[in-house]
Amino acid sequence: MKKFLVTYLAPAAVIDDWKKTEPAKRKEAEEKMQGEWKKWMSDHATMFVDKGAGVGKTRRVTAQGTSDTKNDFLLYAIVEAESHEAASKTFEGHPHLQIPRSSIEVMEIHALPGM
């Protein structure tokens, strides 16, 4: 089996706009998606090596120093699958994709000998 890094993305502007949604409406929609997400995770539990976590505030480090920045990353996970295509296909229809302009990226993890 091959291992893959899965990243869940949504534009920061979409998330910022969502936070402005009326609290009761937002809570209802979030609970619905969480329920669908939990079911999806249960249905695909065997492929996860690391169920991952959410990511927070971002700092960018360059040769010129460190600064605050924003990106579209929300969560990550590590999965195993027979192929890149099989891993990617599994995420089609994932509840995360209900978020406007969201995406899921699936990247094969390659060992770096000697690192």
Structural key phrases:
115 residues; 3 helices; 30% helix; two-stranded antiparallel ribbon; single chain; alpha+beta; four-stranded antiparallel beta sheet; flat
Number of helices: 3
Strand percentage, roughly? 25-35%
Mean pLDDT: 95
Order of helices and strands: EHHEEEEHE
Q: What is the structural class?
A: alpha+beta
Total strand segments:
6
Gist of the model:
This protein has 115 residues and is α+β, with helices and mostly antiparallel strands. It has three helices and six strands, in the order E-H-H-E-E-E-E-H-E.
Description of the molecule:
It is a single chain. The protein is an alpha+beta fold and 115 residues long. The protein contains 3 helices and 6 strands; from the N terminus they run E-H-H-E-E-E-E-H-E. Strand 3 and strand 4 form a beta hairpin. The protein is flat and about 50 Å long. The model has no long low-confidence stretch (mean pLDDT 95).
